[in-house]
Amino acid sequence: QVQLVESGGGLVQPGGSLRLSCVVSGSLFSIYPMGWYRQAPGKQREYVADITTGGRTNYQDSVKGRFTIFRDNAKATVYLQMNSLKPEDTAVYYCLARGSATDYWGQGTQVTVSS
């Protein structure tokens, strides 16, 4: 069974940085395109960034230039480096592994940007 466990969330001041991690177990990590999504209170879950098996990346416009997604296949981990954080980045952040027949989600990690 594929399991995803996120970590690295927390409380940070505007302008600060956080690095989220998502460790995948139960399957061969390198075969999965990976992504990060987020859900703010009262809003629908939204796409943040993704990375292909070959390392190609894409980002939501609001995070371009501030967030970086990268993966370490040897550690079965995908990361989201978040810089210049804004209060509107406050949300629960979820990791996604896109399988051929189904998607796998982590439990989420809370990111709060506030002074």
Overall 3D form = globular
Average pLDDT score: 96
Count of strand segments: 11
Instruction: Give a quick account of the main beta sheet: strands, pairing sense, barrel closure.
Output: 7 strands, mixed
- The tally of helices reads 0
Distance between the termini: 40 Å
Task: Give the fraction of residues assigned to helices.
Answer: under 10%
Strand content: over 45%
Our Rg estimate from Cα atoms comes to 13 Å
* Overall SS class: mainly beta
| Unreliably modeled segments | none
Order of helices and strands: EEEEEEEEEEE
Task: Supply database-style keywords.
115 residues, mainly beta, 7-stranded mixed beta sheet, 4-stranded antiparallel beta sheet, 11 strands
Written overview of the protein:
It is built from no helices and 11 strands. The chain has 115 residues and is an all-beta fold. Strands 2, 4, 5, 6, 9, 10 and 11 form a 7-stranded mixed beta sheet that branches. Strands 1-3-8-7 form a 4-stranded antiparallel beta sheet, with no helix packed on it. The mean pLDDT is 96.
